[in-house]
Amino acid sequence: MSIKISAENVKELRNKTGAGMMDCKKALQASKGDINIAIENLRKKGLALADKKSSRIATEGMIESYIHIGSRIGVLVELNCETDFVARRSEFQQLAKNIAMQIAACQSVQYVSIDDIPENIIINETNIESNKEDLFNKPKDVKDKIISGRMDKRLKELTLINQAFIRNTDLSIDDLIKEHIALLGENIKIRRFERFLLGEGLEKKSNNFTAEVTSILNK
């Protein structure tokens, strides 16, 4: 017996997921009208489609900027897709804005993905973990397992796509991108980003009134 799905339910699911009308209707029928199950099924379907599209070349897109309140943090991020048509879509542009805000919020993030981390950085981080005092008396196999776990966590801390999305922590940035690949039908990649912190790298001015007065008197 087929479940009768109302147009209102289809519209609600579409608004929540961005999926096509027919996909929403089929997902609701398969879930017997349960919208939460339908959302999960659409998400799984979207991730599967995204994996198939991930090898496509993406050279179009946009460069998005974000300046945090107070103008002390600025971000530039290049987000690529396959066509200019998708680059003009509001969903793609909102994705770029969300990613730029994510970069501003995650100060520890330095790379897009683990594949982008230089080998010397990985070696250095491994050496730091290997020489921590709590590992000195551990058996080698236990020590290696602990180091492996800590390194996995540390490298994920450094990479953008492994961060929990600040607007929905149930999703990673990687999940967010894959959902948009499924929604827009094109491969989407974060190519690069740059974060600017006001005064970063500059020697902070330290006002020493006594030294300043002494200097003037000695002239």
Give a topology summary.
Blueprint: H1 7-17, H2 21-30, H3 35-53, E1 60-67, E2 73-81, H4 84-87, H5 90-105, H6 119-130, H7 140-157, E3 164-165, E4 168-172, H8 173-184, E5 189-197, H9 209-217
Helix pairs in contact: 1-2, 1-3, 2-3, 3-8, 5-8, 6-7
Keywords:
Helicase, Ruva Protein, domain 3; 9 helices; 5 strands; alpha+beta; 51% helix; 219 residues; Tetrahydropterin Synthase, Chain A; cytoplasm; single chain; two-stranded antiparallel sheet; plastid; 15% strand
Radius of gyration: 24 Å
| Through-space gap between termini | 98 Å
Q: Helix content range of the residues, please?
A: 40-55%
Strand pairing plus helix content: what structural class?
A: alpha+beta
CATH H-tier superfamily of the largest domain: Elongation factor Ts, dimerisation domain
Major β-sheet annotation: 3 strands, antiparallel
Order of secondary-structure elements = HHHEEHHHHEEHEH
Q: What would CATH call the architecture of the largest domain?
A: 2-Layer Sandwich
Q: Give the spatial strand order of the biggest sheet.
A: 1-2-5
Can you tell me the overall shape? globular
Return residue spans where pLDDT drops below 50 for at least 5 consecutive residues: none
| CATH topology grouping of the largest domain | Tetrahydropterin Synthase, Chain A
Provide a compact summary of the structure.
The protein contains 9 helices and 5 strands; from the N terminus they run αααββααααββαβα.
